[in-house]
Amino acid sequence: MTAAAAFATNWQVALPALVVAATAGLAMVVDLVLTDPDRDALAVLGIAGCVAAIGAAVALWLHDGDPAGFGNTLRADRYALFFTVVIAAASALTLLMSVDFLRQNALPAGEYYTLVLLSTSGMMFLAGANDLIVVFLGIEIMSVAVYVLAGMLRSERRSNEAALKYFLLGAFATGFLLYGIAFFYGATGSTRLDVITTALARDGLGPFTLLGIALVLVGLGFKVALIPFHVWTPDVYEGAPTAVTAFMAVGVKAAAFAALVRVFLAGLGGAAAAWTGLLWALAALTMTVGNVTAVTQRNVKRMLAYSSIAHAGYALVGVVAAPATAGLAASAGASGGAAVLFYLAVYAVMNLGAFAVVVALGRRGEPNEDLRDWAGVGFRHPVLGLAMAVFMLSLAGIPPTAGFAGKLYLFGAAVDAGDVGLAVVGVLNSLVSVYYYFGVLVQMYMVDGSRRIDPPATRPWVLATILVTLALTVLLGVFPASTMELARVSFQSLR
Amino acid sequence: MGKVLSLVVFWPTLGAALLALLPREHVAGIRRTALAFSLVPLALSLWVLARFAPVPDFQFTHRLAWIPAWGASYRVAVDGVSLFLVLLTTVLTPVVVLASWGDVHRRVKEFFVFLLVLETGMLGTFLATDLLLFYVFWEIMLVPMYFLIGVWGGPRRIYAAVKFVLFTLVGSLLMLVAILYCAWRVRAETGALGFGYEQFLGLHFTLREQLFLFAAFALAFAIKVPLFPLHTWLPDAHVEAPTGGSVILAGVLLKMGTYGFLRFALPLFPAAVGLAAPWLVAAAVVGVVYGALVATVQPDLKKLVAYSSVSHLGFVVLGIFALTPVAAAGSLYQMLNHGLSTGALFLLVGMIYERRHTRQIAAFGGLWGVMPRFSVCLLLAMLASVGLPGLNGFVGEFLILCGSFGTWPWPTVVATSGVVLGALYLLWMYQRVVFGPVVHAENRALADLSRRELAVLVPVLALCLAMGLFPTPFLARMQPSLDRILARVAHASTTVVATAEPR
After folding, report:
1. How far from the centroid of its chain's Cα atoms is residue B100's Cα?
2. Which of A290, B95, B365, B481 makes the best surface tag, with the fewest CB within 10 Å?
């Protein structure tokens, strides 16, 4: 057997990502032969690809074979498969809501669907990456496609600004990441996480490893938009096409978190004492600054951008609590890591729903993103109003919605880790967030606006997205137990 | 039989779902459907009352698995503390539905949907015996009330609604952390997480832990009561809320705070109670006097009734922290009284507001001749609130004052002045509104109460009278459960003293 063949044994671990990448290639070809100017068939194809990737992930989960592939640089453990399913579902819902959005803004559909799928395959590689080089590759595959997507509204200055800003700052952050990887390689002789773990256990933490930790944290912190690496977020989220913003806020964030959690809890878990304090401070800072800044926003997309920063802070609470609760993962209770997984799934559902409502209320040249435009919408469009109300309540963490179950899991983990202080910071932040999430309810239901916005009536695709996310938000809130259990089992497979 | 409580809790939500599907234009049908759905929980809860045994334990328990990994289950049950509060809720909801036929003309369907969802939240809060479930229902109440104030309220409704939500959440979020902490203590002591009320009762806390946990629970409840100086959301919420919202808010939602003290704060953290009681009693007594004084000078009828609530709920808190069986029974009794008499007052203020579109006391006068039925109803409701013997308010206040004097002599003396002041501001209000000549021409042609309005008021006033004349059937069912709670507190205070002394 040649070395290359040995390296490629157990190639199935990459199956979900390969399915999505192949679908992207197929989409490019099909795009050439389609005559329908809207290219709706491509969306269906893309969704089918995502569903097939979910099927592949489920098959791998049930098969339960050796998760290590490509010389253990890529793993299809249940942890990776959990994220694969979340990412594939998020992409499928993004594609679903994009159909009406593309038609309305006359965007080039073929390129759009292909890029979303390519980015999705990068995210899946990121979820399974067990080697810092693969982390880097996954981030680049994911990001390059998103840089282009962010600038798709070529005639809009805000969109151009978003693409350029995201690209320049993203490249800069990737530089930090690579620099950090180099330090790890220098200090431990490898970029593979399991080798790094062993080396750290043997040699202890040196100054270069610490530097590596800090630089990798900067690189990943940029992608998940932790404070103070968040400055790009509001402008990019506001300027990018809304469906792309949803994709960034949900997919990119979940995938980057998948990498962050694996690097820190599996790779650097033994050195937890070195980074928990730092991450504690970042979590508290990210929650607080994100929420407090969101209070003053009048643009819904911008508000959701700051809210997504705050939610990264909440999720980080689970990462901070994870080392102290790791031994308890097997027993009943809130393991911090499992809480992160559950929360990111919940966050994906409710946030996609909120962005879908923004899409549904806009029309060409009239995005209706100013909060004042939403006055009275709740009663004039009962279904959109009800859905947005549920998404806002869920993002604020009010029971019986999914957001409450997610926060309960996270803050429970913090209490479990003996860190009641961080739980208190978290709930006080939820209180601040109630002000601006409920502000949307105030506009929709309690204010009579002078201007009536009038979104197009028939939009089956975006409405389908809203109904699916709405149902999931309520179901995950009322009956969270089985998904929590999946998250727990998934996190246990991480090593 | 075990499922009857779940039926009581979720029936209103079923009704809300059905209402949501009805066509918006069919207002009369929506109103009748809402009324019909709100009467079913009343009938069911009366059936529970008939079958209720006067023993301290929980009865009619219904339990389902919910989040097994966390030891949280869906568990509802009723005991002597919650029984009559549930009945208060199921009585007031149809009353409010019927009262709202008159004053809600805009977005009728949505109003009743929110009202019925709110009923589910309230009933669930009283009946939950799992603390996570309790918390979920506690928060669920918030959303429909927020909409009731914010959509159907007065000119400053948005400010009032947001203030109501933020104030309530400050306390309840910290209570959530305390609940989580207790659940993890359950695991430390028993090996598995648990949120059950009985599991929490079995925990052994240090005094320091008890103080922190008690503080977290007490803050949530004190804001809801509301206890001076955390009461500032109440006048805003009451004045801006529509009549139905005010009745539910004063009648039931404020009782959540005092119920929480009785059900959770006292028995779960008994050692902390002894240390915290003087402070809470002081706040309660200040509230009694302050509320009464502020009510005296209000030119607005609704504000007057709102501040009288601050005063009356102060009595209830005093009675709870007297920690005697008599005072505790008086407090629970007074919660029901306040729900009925203040509910009736808000209904009457709403009815006169519908006719005149003002609530200024100065705008009225001489109504006795114009609206005799209204004047008689207001007289009864006002006297019930004052605490005239023969009406329910007297029983509650008398028991509280008798039971508290032994524990807190001076605070009780000061609180008694609240009774005097209560008589002052209510009688003076009555005099200015009802007696004297008709000074404003607009008041000459006011229509007296309609049959629908009488149907709203008569059941409430009849209950005020019945509870004033025959308190024993009520007290006999409350007392065993209350005694059990007080026994825990008494036991804890002796053991804490015993363990503290060797140091």
Report:
1. 19
2. B365
A130-139 burial string, b = 16+ CB within 10 Å, else e? bbbebbbbbb
**Nearest-CA neighbor of B286 among B255, B317, B332, B260?**
B317
Would you say A146 and A247 are in contact if contact means Cβ atoms under 8 Å apart? yes
Span B33-46, mean pLDDT?
93
Paired tokens of B45? 């809860």
- Which residues in chain A are closer than 8 Å to B245, comparing Cβ atoms? none
B244: Cβ–Cβ under 8 A, 6 or more apart, which residues?
A: B96, B97, B99, B100, B103, B104, B111, B115, B148, B350
Could you give the CA distance from residue B234 to residue A113 in angstroms, rounded to a whole number? 53
Q: How confident is the model over B135-180, as pLDDT tens digits?
A: 999 999 999 999 999 899 888 889 999 999 999 999 899 999 999 9
Confirm or reject contact between B165 and chain A (CB < 8 A): yes
Inform me whether the pLDDT recorded for B493 exceeds 80: no
The burial of B484, by beta-carbon neighbours within 10 Å (0-12 exposed, 13-18 middle, 19 or more buried), is given as: middle
| B8 close to B120: Cβ distance less than 8 angstroms | no
Q: Is the pLDDT of residue B322 over 80?
A: yes
Q: Which amino acid is at B131?
A: L
Given the DSSP bridges, would you call strands A74-75 and B59-67 parallel, antiparallel or unpaired? unpaired
Q: How far out from the chain centre does Cα B311 lie?
A: 14
C-alpha dihedral, B220 to B226 to B229 to B231, nearest 10°: 110
Is B402 an interface residue toward A (CB < 8 Å)?
Answer: no
Cα–Cα distance between B488 and B437 in angstroms, integer? 58
Chain B positions touching A333 (Cβ under 8 A) are: 69-70, 184, 187, 193
* Closest chain A CA to residue B216: A424
- Nearest by CB to A445, from B150, B165, B169: name it: B150
* Secondary structure letter of residue A298 according to DSSP: -
So where are chain B's domains?
270-503
Q: What is the model's pLDDT at position B497? A: 47
What chain B residue is nearest to A437 in terms of C-alpha separation?
B162
For residue range A290-340, what is the model confidence (pLDDT) as tens digits? 999 999 999 999 999 999 999 999 999 999 998 887 655 445 556 888 999
CB contact under 8 A, B180 and A446: no
Contact status of A393 with chain B (Cβ, < 8 Å): yes
How far are the Cα atoms of B210, B262, B279 from residue B206, in angstroms, in the given order?
A: 6, 21, 21
The answer to whether A253 and A308 are in contact (CB under 8 A) is: yes
Domain ranges of chain A: 8-492
Residue with tokens 């805009």: B106
A-chain residues within 8 Å CB-CB of B132?
408
Structure confidence at residue B502 as a pLDDT band (50, 70, 90) = very low
Query: Which tens digits make up the pLDDT trace of A103-140?
Result: 888 888 899 999 999 999 999 999 999 999 999 999 99
CA trace torsion A50, A53, A57, A58 (10° rounding):
70
Which of A407, A442, A447 should be substituted to probe chain B, the one whose Cβ sees the most B Cβ atoms within 10 Å? A442
From residue B275, alpha-carbon distances to A324, B215, B483 in Å are 34, 11, 20
B378 vs B394: CA distance, rounded Å: 17
d(CA B317, CA B324): 13
3-state helix, strand, coil in chain B (%, to 5): 80, 5, 15
Q: Residues A81, A84, A85, CA angle at the centre, nearest 5°?
A: 90
Residues B152 and B135: their CA atoms lie apart, in Å, by 26
Separation in Å, CA of B47 to nearest CA in chain A: 29
With CA atoms as reference, report the closest residue to A309 among A222, A198, A409. Answer: A222
**Secondary structure letter of residue B187 according to DSSP:** H
